[in-house]
Every structure is written in C-alpha cells, then in structure tokens.
Amino acid sequence: MQLVWFKRDLRLHDHAVLTKASKRGSILPLYIFEPTLWQQPDMSYRHYLFLKQSLDDLSQTLNNLGHKLVIKVGDAVDILNDIKECHPIEALWSHQETWNGWTFERDKAVKRWCYSNNIPWHEPAQNGVIRCLNNRNGWSAHWYRHMIQPILQAPESLEIIETHSHSIPCHTKLGLEKDGITKIQLGGRREGLKLLNSFLYERGENYTKEMSSPLSAFQSCSRLSAHLAFGTLSMREVFQACEKRNNEIQQRPSIHKGRWPSAMRSFSGRLHWHCHFIQKLEDEPSLEFKNMHPSYDGLREDDFNEAYFEAWKQGKTGYPLVDACMRALTATGWLNFRMRAMVMSFASYHLWLHWRKPALHLAKLFTDYEPGIHYSQVQMQSGTTGMNAIRIYNPIKQAFDQDPEGLFIRQWIPELQEMDQAYIHMPWQAVSQMNGYPMPIADEKTARKAAADKLYSLRKNNNTHKGIADKIIKKHASRKVKKRKMAVKKQSNDAQGELPL
Ligand SMILES: Cc1cc2nc3c(=O)[nH]c(=O)nc-3n(C[C@H](O)[C@H](O)[C@H](O)COP(=O)(O)OP(=O)(O)OC[C@H]3O[C@@H](n4cnc5c(N)ncnc54)[C@H](O)[C@@H]3O)c2cc1C
Predict the structure, then answer these.
(1) Would you say the C-alpha torsion 375, 273, 50, 184 has a positive or negative sign?
(2) Which DSSP string corresponds to 302-341?
(3) What are the pocket residues of ligand 1 if the criterion is a CB atom closer than 6 Å to any ligand atom?
(4) Are 192 and 377 in contact (CB under 8 A)?
(5) Per CATH, which fold does 2-126 belong to?
(6) Residue ranges per domain, the chain?
C-alpha cells in the first residue's frame, strides 16, 4: 500500500504525489490533524476554518470517485505506526513542505521513523522551492522550468484501501478559540478556482493601479494567497492560467488590451516572489526566530513596550489607518501588501517593538499565513535583513495617499464615523469629535526619526555589518535574470518592488 499523506496540497489536480503513488498500486489517502501543531503560537481558529472547508471539498471530490479521505487525529509518528499495524506500507508519499519550525522537527521525526521501519519516503517538490540548494545561481530558471511543466490531471479512478477514519475534530478539541473573524474567506478548491477565474477575466484589470489602496485591493487583488498556502490550487496551474490569459490579451488590437498586460505582468512577478521568499526559509529555518543579520541582535529586545503592543493589536494606536487595518484584518483575515508592510513597519519603527511577537500575532490573523513569506517580509519591514533598504512608512501620508476621503477608516473605526473630513487622518486635531478614539500613543515624526537614527548609525558604525550583509546577499538575494517575455519582468512601483538586489 502506498500511503499518500496530504499536507498543504489539498487537491487532486496537479498533484505529483497522488499521480506517482497511484501508479505503484493501491493508495491510502490520509490527512492527519496534529493537536500539538494547533497549540503552536502561530496557529488560529481562522486557519482551522479554512482548512476544514478545504478538507470537506477534497473529501467530496474523492467521494465522487467512490472513495473516502481518511482523517486521523494524533501525533504523526503514532498515526503512521497504527496504520502500519493494519496495512503494510510499501512507501510513504507527501509533497515537500517548507513550513514552521514545528513541522520541520516533526518531519525529522517522521524521517527517523521511516528509516527505522525501512519504509521509503518520497517527497516530490510542490512548487519552485528547491531543497538542499547549493546557491541561488540559476534559481529563477529552475522556477520557470517547474512552472511550465505539463499540469497533471486529477486521476479519474483510484485503487484505494479503506480504513477507519476519524471525523474532523471540533476546534475546541484542538484548543482553539474563536478569534473575532466575521468575514472568513471560503476555503476549498472550488472557491479557489472561482477566484482565479474572476481575477483573470473580470476583477483583475486594474490590479497594478489598485493593489495598494485598502479601498480597492480587497476586490482588485487576486485573493488567492490562502488557496496557495493550503494548496487547494497548485502554483503551476495559477501560473499557467495567467500565461494563457496573457496570450489571449496579447492577440487583441492595442486599443482593446486595456490595463490587462500590466496587471498580468505584475501578478506573474508576484507568483515568482512567493517561491523566492519561501526559498529563504527553506535555506535558513532560523529566520522564523532570529534576525537574519546578527548585528541587529539586542537592538530592540530590552525595550519591548507591552502597552504599545496591546494598543497595536487592538487597533487603538491613535493613527487611524493603522488602526483601521488592524481591525479589518481581525475581522476578515486579509490585508493587501502595502497595508501589511505599513502595520509591520509601524510596530517595528514607531513603536520600536522587536518583530517576533507582532509577527506571531499577524501570523494568527492572516488566513494565508505562509511562514516562508511571512518571516522574510516581517524582517524586511523591520530592517533586520541587513540587505534591504530601510523603508519606514509614514502612516499619515499613507492615509492621505491610499484612503484620501477616509472611507476605509470610517468603515472600520466607528468612533470616527462622524469626524469632519478635514481631520479624519489626524483626529487629534479635533479633540471634541474623537468620540472615545485614543490620542496617538507615539509622536509620528519623533518616533520615525529616532528609529531611523538608530538603524542608520548601527549600519554605519558596525565594522562587521557590511561583510555579513554581503554573505546574506550571496545566499538569499535573487539574481539578475534575462527578461522573459512575460514572467518576472521589471517589477511594479509598489513597495514589493524592494526585492533584494
Ligand atoms: C509583513 C508581511 C507579511 C506577509 N505575510 C504573508 C503570508 O503569511 N502569506 C502570504 O501568502 N503572503 C504574505 N505577505 C505577502 C503579501 O502581502 C500577500 O501575499 C498578498 O497580500 C496576498 O494577497 P493576494 O493573494 O490577493 O495577492 P496578489 O497580489 O494577488 O498576489 C498573488 C500571489 O503572489 C504572492 N505574493 C504576492 N505578494 C507577495 C510578496 N510580497 N511576497 C511573496 N509573495 C507574494 C502570493 O502568493 C499571492 O497570493 C506578507 C507581506 C508582508 C508585508
């Protein structure tokens, strides 16, 4: 029996593991709910909800083929042992997973178990991330080659071994509490396909222009991140759908192309970034816990202000756009890139909080939490990579630029609903209308300058900073690639364009 372990690849389509394993004989399709994983500080109720919907969808697809997804609850090694007692396992199959420190350790335990039981563990790659990479030269070409491979069709029939299945455990059994989400994004492959289609054929035309404002981004961005994080869609199928759409657009006369070419270029570039960032964590798992550049160790740790952290988490810093974003994120599980960068930058610079606790809080709030992207971005926005330009977002300027009339602010901060238009971005100038909304917890200009001074002086005065930064660049930075017709062209003007060198 070939044991197919579904992890973050909850689909039958373009599923290398399923395709390869099923060619060898009967399979047992398994998903393991690991209670200890759900107790980790980056896991939350909203992840559970999205996963549950995605598993229901996967089960339904298997049911249509006359089969059942086997759900087990427990420690992975114990579950594998139990299964082995009833069904001799010829091989274990799962996609390579680059996830958090806990799953990394669990995979090491599973590897030891496979070794001592003489069971081969086959782990094909599921996206463009390369395991045991020697260096970054040629990485983009490898990524592109992976993306243009033919898509594997979902099997029409399978030979499946039946065994006892648990039901999906209730969230309380996993120790999860409801977390303020009111508009959860729907999980499952069918939802993912609907989003992909509506983005490429209806919603996406103004993507490049509208991705940065929280007013338009909820609609104009693809919203595929959670589906990519849980693998209800494969990166390759999204990439190829985008290429196909772009080719169709290119056939049109210029006046009928509209803004689609730019949108498709920006989108395709971001798909590449997805794997580019995860590759960093694959190459350096300590990124989740430690500064990428050690010269920043000790810079913020001792100054951690719990009251600031609480105010930031609750959306009560006194800066309307920051607070609206934190409240919107709590309620919906999503924010666009620019606003994620701004709230992280505000925590790291204006409030001078070490990134680790804010990162865990955001990880719980993002339905699409993907450690490889998350920790790389968090460190970029906190200035601890040593290789990126320091970028400190001014939350007042961002509010004027991205929400000029304060519509997003009024939507998420009821206290400011009646505030005069003239003061919506700086309500402290109209104290009588603040309606319980707090005064700013830190002075924007003073705090920004103090943070910048500390960072720049560290870079300037630390003799070893440059030498270490050069090594980091060599290990993690993307290399210049020849422009391809479509993928990975020059990046857009958004701050995401701060791709390392
Ligand atoms: C502090 C911070 C934390 C972040 N944490 C996460 C996270 O946990 N999970 C996550 O998926 N993204 C994360 N991002 C990146 C980005 O904000 C989201 O991928 C994006 O907002 C998701 O929305 P979308 O699917 O509509 O993206 P689109 O703009 O439609 O982009 C399409 C896909 O490209 C990828 N992508 C887009 N932007 C980036 C980027 N800057 N870096 C890497 N990949 C990108 C994502 O897979 C995304 O789904 C983070 C950004 C910041 C600044």
Answers:
(1) positive
(2) GG--HHHHHHHHHT-SS-HHHHHHHHHHHHHS---HHHHH
(3) 211, 221-225, 228-229, 267, 270-271, 273-274, 277, 336-337, 340-341, 344, 366, 368-370, 373-374, 377-378, 381, 496
(4) no
(5) Rossmann fold (3.40.50)
(6) 2-126, 127-153+189-282, 287-462
Residue 228 Cα: closest atom of ligand 1: 47
Cα(first)–Cα(last) distance of the chain, in Å?
48
478 — pLDDT class (breaks 50, 70, 90): confident
pLDDT in tens, 164-196: 999 999 999 999 999 999 998 999 999 999 999
> Are 2-126 and 127-153+189-282 the same fold in CATH?
no
Secondary structure of 194-220 in HEC code, one letter for each residue: HHHHHHHHCHHHHHHHHCCCHHHHHHH
127-153+189-282 classified as CATH 1.25.40.80: yes
Please say if the pLDDT value at position 68 is more than 90: yes
Structure tokens, 318: 């006194």
Mean pLDDT along residues 307-330: 98
Model confidence band, residue 482 (pLDDT cutoffs 50, 70, 90): low
- Output the DSSP codes for 17-36: HHHHHHHHS-EEEEEEE-HH
CA of 314 to the centre of ligand 1 (A): 23
Task: Based on DSSP, count helices (H) and strands (E) in the chain, helices before strands.
Answer: 21, 5
What mean pLDDT do residues 118-143 have?
95
Distances (CA, A) of 15 to 9, 10, 93, 96, 124: 8, 9, 11, 12, 10
**Cα 246 to ligand 1 centroid, rounded to whole Å:** 21
| Predicted pLDDT of residue 431 | 97
CA dist., res. 492 & res. 208, Å (int): 7
pLDDT of 462 reads 87
Q: What is the largest CA-CA distance in the chain?
A: 74
pLDDT of 32 higher than 50:
yes
- Predicted confidence band at 492 (pLDDT cuts at 50, 70, 90)? very low
Strand partners, 160: 27
Q: How far is the CA of 278 from the centre of ligand 1 (A)?
A: 11
- Asked whether residue 494 carries a pLDDT value surpassing 80, the answer given is no
Question: Residues 6 or more apart from 133 whose CB is under 8 A from it?
Answer: 139, 279, 282, 283
The pLDDT tens digits of the residues spanning 259-288 come to 999 999 999 999 999 999 999 999 999 999
Amino acid at 431: V
Q: Which CATH number fits domain 287-462: 2.40.50.100, 1.10.287.990, 2.60.40.10, 1.10.579.10?
A: 1.10.579.10
Write the residue with the smallest CA distance to atom 16 of ligand 1.
Answer: 337
Q: Which residues pair with 71 in a beta bridge?
A: 31
- Atom 5 of ligand 1: nearest residue by CA position: 374
Q: Ligand 1 centroid to 421 CA: how many Å?
A: 32
